[in-house]
Amino acid sequence: MTQQQLWDVDAARSYDTPGTGMFAPDVLGPTVERLAELAAGKAALEFAIGTGRVGIPLAGRGVPVTGIELSEAMVARLREKADETALPVVIGDMATTVVPGTFGLVYLVFNTISNLQTQDEQVECFRNAARHLGPGGRFVVELWVPELRRLPPGQSATVWRSESGYVGMDVYDVLEQRAVSHHSHFDAEEAHRTGRTDAVRLGLSPHRYIWPSELDLMGRLGGFELESRHADWSGAPFTADSRSHVSVYRLPPS
Q1: Which is more confidently placed, 206 or 184?
Q2: Do residues 51 and 77 touch, judged by C-beta distance below 8 A?
Q3: Cβ-contact 123, 221 below 8 angstroms
Q4: What pTM does this model have?
Q5: Can you tell me the distance from the alpha carbon of 232 to that of 247, in angstroms, rounded to the nearest whole number?
Q6: Which fold has domain 3-145+211-251?
Q7: Per-residue pLDDT reduced to its tens digit, 122-164
Q8: 148-208, what's its fold?
Q9: What residues does CATH 2.20.25 cover in the chain?
């Protein structure tokens, strides 16, 4: 399944969950706050801007935001909330697409760099970020830490969330350094009321996972140095037990 097929009209229609999940104030608020701080009054470019979850509120903070997005369906959903004047978007691949202008900040949130399926593409993503930045510009990556320590002997899958109505599971291929995330949504009330089997929605997304040290090497290949790494957008310390990280890379000032 290609990324174009994955992020289709149905995915775009169901992506936004106002006030909950990725859109919950305690998730989105610190993200926008930190990015506004890192932009330091300069323009920002979001790779894989999607439906504008982060880009729209960041622009609302007075940061000029431009986006790159592969899925036309996701951009169509964004356009229901912000027009081209308020938030320009170029359709294309975040590893190769170039947009006009020079930016102080490029950012890539919610594990999206792992949607690039090869190491070469991921390195090119760093190089593309550098291509858009002025001296001293920053590239911010939010990414999960592969949970291979949780794999039982002889097993290839971990359940990373299990709650009423939802199960999230990652299936790992440790030889190829890949993972497929499986998302199972179940509406028990609807199933009981209607007898419909399609009350269960199944989704999947393929990833090439990246260790923090490998990500740092990609940064160096792109001309960056690691400026900071925290466990979340609020600045919690990154430790061996952290399940994700926010890494800030910076180009030399001259």
Answers
A1: 206
A2: yes
A3: yes
A4: 0.89
A5: 9
A6: Rossmann fold (3.40.50)
A7: 999 999 999 999 999 999 999 999 988 888 788 888 887 788 7
A8: N-terminal domain of TfIIb (2.20.25)
A9: 148-208
Start and end residues for every CATH 3.40.50.150 domain found in the chain: 3-145+211-251
Residue indicated by tokens 């291929």:
173
**Side-chain half-sphere exposure of 230, counting CA atoms within 13 A:** 10
CB proximity list for 2: less than 8 A, separation 6 or greater:
none
- Nearest residue to 243 (alpha-carbon basis) of 219, 199, 212: 212
